User: Fold Retrovirus-related Pol polyprotein from transposon TNT 1-94 from Punica granatum.
Amino acid sequence: MVCTRPDIAHYVGVVSRFLSNPGKEHWNVVKWILRYLRGTSKLCLHFGTSKSELVGYTDADMAGDIDSQKSTSGYLMTFVGGAISWQSMLQKCIALSTMEAKYIVVTEGCKEMLWLQKFLQELSLKQERYVLHCDSQSAIHLYKNLTFHSRSKPIDIKFHWIRDMLESKLAKPDKVHTDENGADMMTKSLAKEKLHVCRNITGMFKASK
Assistant:
């Protein structure tokens, strides 16, 4: 189900952390997920509603896990209007700031985008530039500013790999308003209205009869 329903990826990921010792509250969340799926059973991914472009969205919820204090990363990749790849997971290291958490997830999202880029090129589908959306202006500034400073020192050197991708123009991080960031539902629980916006970005609509 998670393979066709990006809207429940975050919730499934959260309850999966307690498989070894689940409690009543975890079972209540599982029942909520099942009720949600029943009420939205006619939703499905639609493709062909926009240009043949690969577009990425990234987001992170700073210290979203209260047990480990780790941030939740989420990315979403769409092609011709529909989601083709997404992920919601805890970051492996503890981020010391929101900027750092979002810097890390953009790096992970960029790696996924480059893989999809090569796959599409194998199918003779090419585009001029590949945009990866992020709602943190400070994180984008850090990508473009190669000078290390106190805010970037804690970031593992492996995450600075994205700077090479920028210099080679293989990917372009772009600022997007948080209300238009489809990856938001990969990192946290959302209000009904915001969830609908994110579902529309992924290309999830009711199936036509």
Remarks:
- Residues 6-206 form a domain with the Nucleotidyltransferase; domain 5 fold (CATH 3.30.420.10).
- The chain has a mean pLDDT of 88.
- Residues 63 and 70 are 5 Å apart (CA to CA).
- The first strand starts at residue 43 and ends at 45.
